[in-house]
Amino acid sequence: MASIKISDRIYWVGAKDPSLRVFDLYVKTTYGTTYNSYLITGDKVALIDAVKDGFEGQFFEAIAEILPIEKIDYLVVNHNEPDHSGAIIELLRRNPRIQIVCSKPAVPFLRNVINDDARPIEGVKGGDKLDLGGISLEFMTAPFMHWPDTMFTYCPERKVLFPCDGYAAHLCPDDSMYAKVGDPVLEHEAWYYYDCIMRPFAPFSRKASEAVLQREIAVVAPSHGPINADQPKHFIQKYLEWTAPKIKSDKKALAIFVASSYGNTKAMADAIAAAIPSDRFDVHLVDAMEVTQERARDIIEAADGILFGTPTFAGDVVKPIWDIAHLLPSVSATGKKAAAFGSYGWGGQAPEILEGYLEQLKLKVFKPGAKARLVPSLAELDECRAFGRAFSEFVLG
Ligand code: FEO
Q: Is the CB of 84 within 6 Å of ligand 1?
């Protein structure tokens, strides 16, 4: 059997990819993955999500076990990333009658997937329902979990939640598609999936998880890995745990990551740190050469303001600071306030290079950064203190 019945009138009709070892070019998939699709068979028939391009064989074979593909009336697209939308073109070629239903933000993405401006696409909003006759679906928007288009679909009659990439794991079970909560591999892979895919959007994941916990849920049927009918709310609750702040404080948090070969940029960092009002801020002055990536990510997530101290070496930002800056896309950092500073021998453009990168990541950047040539003079250290005070005001403002 290629398909699996998961509830009355609801079937898993996805595809398995056991040999995948890297997903989206950076996520290790030690155990492969699955591309889950679900068939809902009321008087009308809906398919929730498709599979990755190249896996149509398994997908269509699974559907054909339940009913002819021509019987499908609706395709519900929870999310447009190609691991779920890749097979849509072939699906529509085989059944051009299918009506596509997706969130309103998903409509332009779908246009770029199918490249057919003539095909009607129905954009729905949270709370909209689709009555299939004997069973129905309700749509719940979950923007930025992890794309702007993401929505969850819920079947109230069977209390099955289809949360797309939410609460998923890159696992490819060769026996049962059902989760065994507490299994160490599942627990780790679910966390790793969150850490890689959802963590950059942690506040959005938290909001969606809080909302969905209010529902009665008997089964969570995600778009990758096992289906959870064991303790269906387990990973939803885990998302609340994982999205909680790791570093707590009543004050604002200000992080200063600094790399310094000869102590000049470090002297600037010390002067800046001393000027930050301690009654308003917890200051984390961090040696970029020493901090672990995980600790740096926690500090970035907790920080209201982030300063990067980098000398200019060979016309560029130094590697330990690039390594920290390159962690920004992996956590929730959009909108945070940031600035750069550093010493130099000649040139001195590293702060400007970093400012451009930070702006591209949509951080709010305070400019210009402080600079000192070689050993900071007393006047340059005064400028660093002024820079620290001004940055504090920028963060508070
Ligand atoms: Fe599984 Fe965001 O795609």
A: yes
